[in-house]
Structure to design on (175 residues):
């Protein structure tokens, strides 16, 4: 919502009125009257309706969606499996291990963190796998799966249906 308005202010997008397809730059969009049932942004001097549909006027490239480095996503990437012995003891018996320990300059990142069972993590301690005489089952890397759009059933805005084909809404979304 705010991203669309920011792009409108920067001139990177134009707002499109879904009812009549009029295109508006920020100034003409800000001049439109805000109806009582429409979401709006209030400033000290303006009430600006939030655009439901925007069209980009320029872009450098399509952004590459990336997977956020989180504990949950790390467990998904490593499939709840110890990356040293291959055990699958359950999430309560797994911990995040820094391949290069933080005490030695290691960072919390996709390429330096793996799941380890309590036994393997204790054995490795504050050393690198090589120093501990252990071997990783796979080189840690950023996952190649991407975030997907989840549209809740019944959550499709009526005004969007004029701009997006029915086959988009009927497509099967993969987790």
């Amino acid at each position: 919502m705010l991203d669309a308005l920011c792009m409108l202010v920067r001139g990177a997008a134009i707002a499109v009125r879904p009812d009549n397809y009029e295109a508006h730059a920020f100034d003409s969009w800000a001049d439109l009257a805000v109806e009582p049932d429409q979401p709006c942004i209030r400033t000290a001097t303006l009430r600006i309706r939030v655009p439901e549909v925007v069209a980009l006027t320029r872009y450098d490239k399509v952004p590459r969606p990336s997977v956020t480095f989180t504990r949950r996503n790390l467990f998904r990437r490593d499939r709840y499996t110890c990356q040293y012995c291959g055990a699958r003891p359950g999430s309560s018996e797994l911990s995040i291990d820094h391949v290069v320990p933080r005490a030695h300059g290691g960072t919390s990142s996709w390429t330096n963190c793996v799941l380890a069972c309590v036994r393997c993590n204790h054995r490795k301690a504050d050393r690198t796998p090589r120093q501990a005489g252990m071997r990783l089952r796979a080189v840690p890397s950023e996952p190649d799966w991407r975030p997907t759009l989840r549209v809740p059933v019944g959550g499709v805005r009526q005004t969007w249906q004029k701009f997006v084909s029915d086959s988009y809404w009927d497509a099967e979304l993969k987790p």
About this structure: The mean pLDDT is 85. The chain is about 20% helix and 15% strand. Helices lie at 2-10, 26-31, 71-77, 118-124, 129-132, 166-170. Strands lie at 13-16, 23-24, 40-42, 47-49, 53-56, 94-98, 113-117.
